[in-house]
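User: structure tokens for this one?
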Amino acid sequence: MKRYGMVIGLNPEHIDEYKRLHAAVWPGVLQKIAECNIRNYSIFLRDNTLFSYLEYLGNDFTADMAKMAADPVTQEWWRATDPCQHPVASAREGEWWSPLEEVFHVD
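Assistant:
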């Protein structure tokens, strides 16, 4: 299992919409998350920054993320959520959610 932490900006005018969408995530989106070997997935909000945490149980993260990106229901979900977000200032070229370096963990 590998843990992932990522951040992205949240447009202030879309905070309520983003919360509303995530209060009732579409069943097809949840199903695809599980099919792509993601567990224990959370998104937290602080000011205008979203922090996500997930645990990946598969063997090929890149392939599973491509599978998710190819899913029509997930694509529709992203069309609803993407306008709410923006990359953080330190995002690399083409990066949406920016990965964080894990510097400490204890069970």
